[in-house]
Amino acid sequence: MSAMPLSTSVVRVPKAGEMVAAQLRRQIVTGELREGDALPSETELMERFGVSRPTLREAFRILESEQVIQVRRGARGGGRVMMPDVSAAARYAGTLLQYRKTTLADVHEARANLEVAAVATLARKRTAADLRALDDMLAKGEALLSDPPAFGKGYDLEFHRTLMQLAGNQTMIVLLDIVSTIIESHVENFLREHRGDLGAESKAAAAHRAHVKLVQLIRDKDAVKAETFWRKHLAQVKNFMIEDPEESVLDVLP
Questions:
Q1: CA angle, corner 230, sides to 151 and 143, nearest 5?
Q2: Which of 39, 169, 171, 188 lies in disulfide reach of 79, CB 3.0 to 4.6 Å?
Q3: What is the tens place of the pLDDT at every residue in 163-210?
C-alpha cells in the first residue's frame, strides 16, 4: 500500500509581534483591559512576553491600526486602551468595495436585506421597552420634519440603526454599521446636490409616515406585513436616491 502524499501547502507561522498583539487584543475584548486603561510600560511588557522592543512596537502598530489602542510618544507616552468600534472595518470594507467597483444600488440592496430580516425578527419578539424606544424615535423624527437636512442626515439613519439594535443580532448590527457608513456618505452627497429642494419637507413627511406605519406593524406583531412593507419602502428609497444605476461606492467615498 503506497503512502499518502504529503501536502505541499505552507503553514504560515505568526510573527512574534502578531502573537503579542493577539494576547493584548484578547485582554481588551474580554474586558481585562478596559477603555482608558494605560498599558503597562514597554519594559514590563517586554519582560512579560519575552520579546524585544522592536517586536513589542510592531504589536503596538498592529493594535493601533485596528484602533483598539492609542500610542503616545515621548517621556509620558505609552499605549492606552480604546473601545473597539466599527470605523476601521468600515474603512477597509469601503476600500474593498471601491476596488470591486461596487454600485451604490448593490449597497442599498444589502442594507435592505439586513433590515428586512431585522424588522421581521423585531415584530415577532418586540417588548414594551422596544415599543417605547420606537415611539421615542418617532417623536424625535416628528420634531425634525421642518428641518429636512437634519431629518435625512442624522435622524433617518439613527432610526434604521435602532431597528437593527432592537432586533438584537450583534453580527447584523456590525454589518449594518459598515454598510451605513457608505450610505451616510451617499446621503450627504445627495443632500448637498439637492440643497434647496422645494419638495424636501414633503419627502421627509413621507419618510416619517413610513416609519409610523412600520412601528404600528411591529406593535401588532405582524412580521409578514412588516417585512413586506419595509422591503417596498427601502426599494423606493433606493430608486429615489440613485439617479444613475452605474453610480458606485467610488463616487461617494473619499
A1: 25
A2: 39
A3: 999 999 999 999 999 999 999 999 988 888 878 776 788 999 999 999
Q: If 0-12 CB within 10 Å is exposed, 13-18 middle and 19+ buried, where does residue 94 land?
A: buried
Average pLDDT, the chain: 90
Could you identify the residue written with the cell 470605523? 87
pLDDT by residue (tens digit) across 85-127?
888 888 889 999 999 999 999 999 999 999 999 999 999 999 9
Return the C-alpha cell found at 27. Answer: 485582554
End-to-end alpha-carbon separation of the chain, Å? 61
Distance CA 83, CA 21 (A): 16
User: Which amino acid is it at 131?
Assistant: L
- The span from the CA of 28 to the CA of 157, in Å, is 29
Q: In whole angstroms, what is the distance from residue 63 CA to residue 33 CA?
A: 13
Rounded Cα distance between 60 and 52, Å, is 13
- Cα distance between residue 251 and residue 245, in whole Å: 12
Q: Are 166 and 130 in contact (CB under 8 A)?
A: yes
β-sheet bridge partners, residue 72: 78
Q: Taking Cα atoms as reference points, which of 17, 158, 18, 31 lies closest to residue 83?
A: 31
